[in-house]
Amino acid sequence: MEHPPRVVVLAGGLSHEREVSLRSGRRVAEALRDAGCVVEVRDVDAQLVPALQAEQPDVVWPLLHGATGEDGAVRDVLDLLGLPYVGATPAACRMAWDKPVAKSVARAAGLRVPESVALPHGTFRELGAQGVLAALVERLGLPLVVKPARGGSALGVSVVREAGALPRAMVDCFAYGDVALVERFVEGVEVAVSVIDSGDGPRALPAVEIVADGGVYDYDARYTAGATEFFCPARLTETSAAAAAEVAVRAHVAFGLRHLSRTDLIVDRDGTPWFLEVNVAPGMTETSLLPQSVEAAGEDAGTLYRRLVEAATGASGAEQAPTEPAAPSGV
Amino acid sequence: MPPEGHQAAAGSRLDRWVDTYAARTRGMTASEIRALFAVASRPEVVSLAGGMPFLSALPLDVVGNALARLVAERGTVALQYGSGQGDPGLREKILDVMAPQQVDAHPDDIVVTTGSQQALDLVTRIFVDPGDVVVAEAPSYVGALGVFRSYQADVVHVPLDDDGLIPAALEETLARLTREGRRVKLLYTVPNHHNPAGVTLSAERRPQIVEIAKRYGVLVLEDDPYGLLGFEGDPLPSMHSLNPEGVIYLGSFSKTFAPGFRVGWAVAPHAVREKLVLASESAILCPSSFSQLAVATYLETHDWKHQVGVFRELYRERSVATLDALADMLPAARWTTPKGGFYVWVTLPEGLDATAMLPRAVTERVAYVPGTAFYADGQGRQNLRLSYCYPTSERIREGVRRLAGVVEAELELLETFGGPGVPTGLASGPGGRRQVQSPSPDLT
């Protein structure tokens, strides 16, 4: 590319995570500018399509969290417009975005996945909540994690330690969406592993270990600087760290992701990594995990992001296939 | 603790000063609720959350011309430092603005501040030590609660009803606090068109409240940004008019003119006023000369009383639209009937939690402020505040229609999961349900 890459960063949108997306967008735009790109940040609204058609940027970087951004819809539109973009294709997004589907994909790829049940509100209404909740506790045990089947930033997520608290957790969860995922709680070290692929195969960055002050890495703990202690690289044995990295790379490949992803894991007492979810549009804010991993890897964020932009150039989602992992091996 | 065999390493908190902050800063965190408000600014969302005056009703061309003249003709004064107490000309004019509320004062008794929010801060700063008690209505203005919290005051709420703060309840609370040996420094009250409750302290109760406060030696902080925005009749006499030595009166141009100028004021007894000026000088040197002269010019050259009348009529219409829409579409709820100001306070059907319901409301493209924002002690889950000042009557109706759908869905959920008996307080984590921890322009 002879001229500096012209990038449109998409941030904002109408999801519950609008605020986080705006912060991610600002940070990435700043880093890309430092690396010599020409960057414009745009919200997702009725002006977007005509603006993209008029401007014809070299690359679009969707930094939209939550629905539309992560469910593949906006990327479908970018494909329609023939515009290349950073990140996963719509089909891959749809698999990762829906947590129950994602768990099946991960399980099929041979990853350890905590047992869970996904149920829509209607099921509880039709069958009676009491019986279904009791069966959930009986089957999965306590504590339990209740989370919306779709969505991020820990919005609507509760850790339930006693059965009496489960109905409230369900009500809180259903405020964010119609399907709740109830998952067995895995005791262990909370870890996030970011995977980067700028054209030479996916590679895992150093894992970030998360120790939230309140014990739960909820919204406040995520976005208040100082409220969480991060260890990067994570305080894992070499074997566990390698296993965690491998899970993240395998998830990236199994879902057919491109350029970047972040896999959230729990490493249990035996050192076994459990797959929780994979994010196609990981947070890029001041307190987010992927930027911390980039820094711990001794890389410059702007330079790395520019490489991702360049990797995305010239190949729209419909055309560019995901790459093979750098070092595939079993977990 | 890392599991056995793990390597020891130093963690990062992404804030190297995390152990350096003052104790009063520790409660300041990101909040899920505030994050949800980010969506409220999008035009697709009917925001019944923010108390933003409807500035499109202002003669902006007239204001613009006046500002241009101000800079051209008096720029060296308007853009210069000014008096810590505020511009004497503006203080003179403020007397006229307060006349309907019968605030009888001398220009020297007035301290101009950066919005009345700064006056709240200054009064709290000069009176409240950590652990002192501030008595406030239940519910109370979120911005005031934020100030009291930042000075580590202990806020004790006293209930109000359709006639405002309840004298017997105040008496009982003050008696109890006295018995307990607590130091009560202030009674904070919004007597006219209360934010968020939408009620007005009745004429009968005003002398009673003032007398009780006097008897217990408690200074009254009378916050009156909405006094001129009553829909019918003249404003009631201020509490200040009943006991000027025992009441600090706060006024503001934010609702009657424009909040962007950030001009408010305090009227205080002589000795208190001296300390307010010193405290203000140490905080900001002086209020904005430009803003003060802009306001003074507006008062001088424009029929501001007529403009307040325009606002009043506009807000009256919108309050009627809100009340009608509630009656048509949300009959299961209860609400207050404002006689002025910006707000209706809604009580949801038994068992509903307005905070937990907010994400669903945002999904349905309607926003409100959950009641918990207006309490220092976690009350208010069943309440929410609707602001009718900014959206048109048509949009208000659409917003209430969406809200009614949200309430219906939540009632259905509640029924599924065990009715009103579902305990509250878990939210997303062990820290308890989120509260709005500091004021924001979305909430004022």
- Biggest pleated-sheet summary of chain A: 6 strands, antiparallel
Helix content of chain B: 25-40%
User: What gross morphology of chain B would you assign?
Assistant: globular
> In CATH, what is the class of the largest domain in chain A?
Alpha Beta
Succession of helices and strands of chain B: HEHHEHEHEEHEHEEEHHHEEHEEEH
Find the biggest chain interface. A-B, 64 and 55 residues
Compute the average pLDDT of chain A.
91
Task: Identify the quaternary structure here.
Answer: heterodimer
The tally of domains of chain A stands at 3
H and E order of chain A: EHEHEHHHEHHEEHEEEEHEHEEHH
CATH architecture type of the largest domain in chain A: 2-Layer Sandwich
Number of strands of chain A: 13
Low-confidence stretches of chain A: 315-320, 323-331
What is the CATH C level class of the largest domain in chain B, in words?
Answer: Alpha Beta
Q: Mind describing the biggest β-sheet of chain B?
A: 8 strands, mixed
How far is the first residue's CA from the last residue's CA of chain B?
43 Å
